[in-house]
Amino acid sequence: MLSRAFSSSLVAAALLAVGSHAWSQGCESAVEIPTGDTPFDTAGATEVLDLSGFCDPGPAGNDSIYHTIWFKWVAPTTETYEVSTCNQANFDTRLAVLQASCDESLTVACGDDTAGCAGLTTRITFVAVEGTTYYIAVGGYQASTP
Hints:
Layout: E1 2-6, E2 9-10, E3 17-18, E4 31-32, E5 39-40, E6 49-50, E7 64-74, E8 79-84, E9 93-99, E10 107-112, E11 123-128, E12 133-140
Parallel strand pairs: 3-5, 4-7
Antiparallel strand pairs: 1-2, 1-8, 6-7, 7-12, 8-11, 9-10, 9-12
């Protein structure tokens, strides 16, 4: 789910939601998505995104996202956005957002197990700059996660 912030409240315009959808394994071939709901399914994905030294998704486990799939999104305006699987996935999710490139050192946000999100799902926020391309990594907490 990707939401734009207006003042201090978030508008519930979802970017990521559960379902089957074309997805990409490998950041370089990320599927371009609009702002709004984008169903996804990580089943069959095998990529591991190692964020060690760049972003710590949370205190549990290591700094990797397993069964990673990729989306590409261009910010329509400069504001704070939210990417979320909160209460929308049936597995322990992890998320990351990279700015302008697939280089892990350009990670602007990552997360795991957000308070208030059922089933160990995740919500992250970041400030996006109008016209900038962002790469969104969606996956799981461990190698056994779907």
